[in-house]
Amino acid sequence: FQKELLKYKQEARNLQGIKHISPQDALQQRLIQQDASVLQLKQELLRANMDKEELHNQNVDLQRKLEERNRLLAEYKKELCQKDRHLQQHQTKLDEMLRQLSEASYQQVDLERELEHKEALLAHCMKREAEE
């Protein structure tokens, strides 16, 4: 019972103490709280500005890398176009050579037939001459 009584007395003193705070003290306490809040907001703003600056720097860096990759890509495309042109030129030359080779093969076959025919005629003529 004594403990409870002491507890309630302490609580009553605390409540009276709160009631007896002067308006100046209350105003000063409120100013202190506002200053603390302003300081906290300033710190948050500073952090936010630093984060913003860091993001801006990262963005600039990424933009630079993107431009470099685009430049390299353009160079590779240019090289690829040149190689495609060379490849097309070589393909055209190859096709022409194959056509000429095919033509030469047909001529060779024709010449071989003509030679066989002339050899047969010669053999026939020599046989007839030998008979006469």
TrEMBL record:
Annotated gene: Dixdc1
Keyword Coiled coil part of the UniProt annotation: yes
Name under which the protein is recorded: DIXC1 protein
The entry's keywords: Coiled coil
Keyword Signal: no
Domain of life according to the entry: Eukaryota
InterPro entries: Dsh/Dvl-rel (IPR015506)
GO cellular component: cytosol
Membrane-spanning intervals of the chain: none
GO BP annotations listed: canonical Wnt signaling pathway
Coiled coil (UniProt feature): 38-114
